[in-house]
Amino acid sequence: xxxxxxxxxxxxxxAGTQVxxxxxxxxxxxxxxxxxxxxxxxxxxxxxxxxxxxNPQLDAEPLGREFVLQATGTVTxxxxxxxxxxTGMIEITISSFxxxxxxxxxxxxxxxxxxxGDDLRMKYRYLDLRRNAVKxxxxxxxxxxxxxxxxxxxxxxxxxxxxxLIKSTPEGxxxxxxxxxxxxxQFYALPQSPQTFKQLLMVSGYDxxxxxxxxxxxxDLRADRQPEFTQxxxxxxxVEQEDILAMFEGLVKYVFQAVKGVxxxxxxxxxxxxxxxxxxxxxxxxxxxxxxxxxxxxxxxLGGRIQATGELVNGADxxxxxxxxxxxxxAVPGGAEWxxxxxxxxxxxxxRPQVGMKxxxxxxxxxxxTLKSTIDKFYAEDRLRGIAAAARAKPGDIxxxxxxxxERTRKAISDLRLELGERLGMRKKDxxxxxxxxxxxxxxxxxxxNRWVARHHPxxxxxxxxxxxxxxxxxxxxxxxxxxxxxxxxxxxxxxxxVLNGNEIGGGSIRIYQRxxxxxxxxxxxxxxxxxxxKFGFLLGAFEYGAPPHGGxxxxxxxxxxxxxxxxxxxxFIAFPKNNSGRDMMLDAPSTIDDKQLAELRIRLEKVNPE
Amino acid sequence: xxxxxxxxxxxxxxAGTQVxxxxxxxxxxxxxxxxxxxxxxxxxxxxxxxxxxxNPQLDAEPLGREFVLQATGTVTxxxxxxxxxxTGMIEITISSFxxxxxxxxxxxxxxxxxxxGDDLRMKYRYLDLRRNAVKxxxxxxxxxxxxxxxxxxxxxxxxxxxxxLIKSTPEGxxxxxxxxxxxxxQFYALPQSPQTFKQLLMVSGYDxxxxxxxxxxxxDLRADRQPEFTQxxxxxxxVEQEDILAMFEGLVKYVFQAVKGVxxxxxxxxxxxxxxxxxxxxxxxxxxxxxxxxxxxxxxxLGGRIQATGELVNGADxxxxxxxxxxxxxAVPGGAEWxxxxxxxxxxxxxRPQVGMKxxxxxxxxxxxTLKSTIDKFYAEDRLRGIAAAARAKPGDIxxxxxxxxERTRKAISDLRLELGERLGMRKKDxxxxxxxxxxxxxxxxxxxNRWVARHHPxxxxxxxxxxxxxxxxxxxxxxxxxxxxxxxxxxxxxxxxVLNGNEIGGGSIRIYQRxxxxxxxxxxxxxxxxxxxKFGFLLGAFEYGAPPHGGxxxxxxxxxxxxxxxxxxxxFIAFPKNNSGRDMMLDAPSTIDDKQLAELRIRLEKVNPE
Lengths: 611, 611
Hints:
2 copies of one chain form a homodimer.
Chain A: E1 18-31, E2 34-41, E3 44-50, H1 55-60, E4 68-77, E5 90-101, H2 118-123, H3 125-128, H4 132-154, E6 158-159, E7 177-179, E8 187-189, H5 195-203, E9 208-216, E10 228-237, H6 241-260, E11 269-272, H7 273-280, E12 294-298, H8 319-323, E13 326-332, H9 340-351, E14 361-365, E15 371-373, H10 381-390, E16 398-404, H11 406-423, E17 434-438, E18 443-446, E19 451-454, H12 467-472, E20 495-500, E21 503-510, H13 515-524, H14 529-542, E22 550-556, H15 557-564, H16 595-601, E23 603-605
Helix pairs in contact in A: 4-6, 4-15, 13-14
């Protein structure tokens, strides 16, 4: 062993002890004839004190930043103590030392506030990982991993590994594929999730399964997506939705306690998907704050419910609202006091291309009870009061109103709500609010193909009450305009998402476990019988031999860690992430391979640029 | 929840309790008007008793094998108890039941001794997994997983995930590759192990890393290999070989205790690679028994040592021995009593093509001290006694002698020793003997390319005493005949294998951490500077910024589980294994993929058969 102690463990009670430390030189400070070195390892920083006797050696072998140093000496009480670090009461009076390895000058500083840009830090990820800010994330990730395993183990779950070289059955996302050399012309696929395997394990009787497992999706990457990502993947047999919700809110609460020391005693709130969409404009509401959306006018029959027909805004000769598909409003506390500059800025904000609105109308509901509005030449006071009431505005609030096409307007007001929540300090980093979103639609309409797609995935069970609707109706959609009147539009799924502070951290469903229903589902999604058998014959087969009722959930492990770490960037919580082009900058991968490798696989590359 | 209890937990003290169980119908037995059903789940089997009141329902919905049944009733003391199962004191007097799912007749019986052949069981793996024999293996695997994590956690190791989509750097085994759609013409590779990543983590300061992780090798599969397999992968910084040995024999002892209840108190034995090869004929000796090999004659300078020059057998006009490269012997206890039939059978055994010897000579060292031998017309008694003494034979033993080409003969006598150990009951399933094999050669000679290859891998450090030999000599080999005289032939590695009952369960090394030495290693393996930079530039780069001394080990998780489960077939310990052609029989993977997928990846298949 190159050390007797770590750089994080020595305290005043060790004074007088002879110790050997090994670590990295964080700083070297010379004061006349004496030298102080801060030595760093995973566990902390300890100050080393070199007296003048060591100067000949220090002169012969000068220490530099990030050198690997082994040093022996005696723990001594410091004269000038540092209360900011746990080892700050002591230093080591060095008697001998050895440079174990030298270091070139790093391309960026190994400090919390580094001077390294993104690309540089990705290329030298092994140096970036030394920074305390990154190390804390990796440690937090391990803590979440460990707590998850502890909880699931205590609940009788077994970690069972499922294969990585499987069959390509692209449904939705694209598979990464792996050419097989031994079976020329054939390919494995990397799993997008272990979905069918965990269901087979339920059929096999392993009634509580989990895995913390890598999954793969070959999608065009958005800012915060990775081609390989990690899931906490779980499945249970002989359970109903209620059992799953209890088990896994238990998991998240356990993780909060173990990792953050947060006791989440409250019952986890629940909300239907419809309510989430109507009141928050999206399916993963941040419920740390209110500002629910008022539907002043809505063209669509979102989730089978007509909440506002438009009488609040129509017929006032205000063309913008008259012609809009949808008019939505939120009441912002304290907004009645906003200056013209502030409302102008917010108007510009909603007009940015990312939000895409044409403008912003508002009604100030002043503290004295009077109203002031940008639309008061169209609406008499009583109508304005009606709108304010619909938005549940109180004196002192401002009512912000957006109008336009249904989907875009809903998204815009949701974004606006989140932005204002942020600006008004209502989205507190240290507050955790969990929410179950329930009763999702089973199907979504795919306009380009005029057919149904599975909102969650093809293995999700309809609500028991809706099974007959599914079985007894032809999935065929007569015309795109009519899809909302198709009985399938109102089938709800036994599916659930767990939302934390406005982020979906987990989602799952009770599964189909009857062959007939599963076949009907595949047919509803436009698969021929032959296709269904080719892709999922093994699962349909398994359902013939005594499949138990079952369901499960999967958590996005990277995202869960990021949120618990107070960040929204999952890349910061992955030891070796890829960039937005799916490239590992450190390895320089992907890369070309040898012709010999291609020949063995019997594949050829298409020429991208003719030579 | 579909059940109040599992099928494994009810005992006599529950008598009178109303319970609901759910599980699979193992057997249905009708006795006149009453019916007994054995209901099975992951936890056990419980007997259900249906009285005649339930016959109308049983007639309307007859139960069959593997039906999924939910049944409610009262725990009752059995009249005829079954002491063989934990629930054998009770049965459930059923008041109501519901068939949750039916089952077709399974293609093989779900019992310990199934009637299903290998192929059938692989195709219906989800049914095979229901069998108790397989379930026990999967449970054992999870127990080993859990114990491993517990131990490593307690020792300060962190589970840090490394990427699966990496760069292809084939050294030795073939990589599986993954075409990149976003970077047309380029490929990722699946990791053969996280080797370079764990070393980078050491450079980053995460001084105790582990992972239980899937690895991939595209090799022609032997009987007991899988294209994807699992490793317990570990690395430590600031350690020497001794620290690693202590840490990881600790791990295995912990696993023995936790999983098998075996307290392994003994010091783990150690043996150099040379001793293992000389005395046991292979590098993973089973030391549960003796029968060490005597070198009567050896042409090769195996490991720098000349142990026997041949004077024991040469010059007696026995051409077979005179002309043989090598003559090796073992003494088998009690063999002097063997009949002619037994020695004939053994002679046939060594002549089988798998062993490939031309014959077997022997000397019976009778209990009365007399000798009897197949070669006594060539050797006078004193020479026979000399041979017997070299083989450490005692009265009552037989000395078995094989002669032939060095490598084949060594392997044959090793196989013969293991076979006889097996036959004589010396390889006890419930006895565990660990052995560290140390001081491996750093290099192996690759005859076909007339160059050095790394015996372990290119990141293994030479013994400190041998670094200079490596640095100061040109790796070039003048002629194949002379390779043993090259200084590199005698460089020993800081490498170690952990052997359990004759199986290598883990192996590792202290790593190179100096750029210059690593460059020399790549050069020694025949890599140009350019190649080395292209493949491992990131690692060479990392070694410039303060790489600490480090080392590690990886355990073959599948094999470790198999040995602990008393089997030698890893496939039995993998939930969804592939067959010997790398095919998943259940999924029917690999398979062809859509032209659309190929087009997106910009690859074309070579036609295997012209159309």
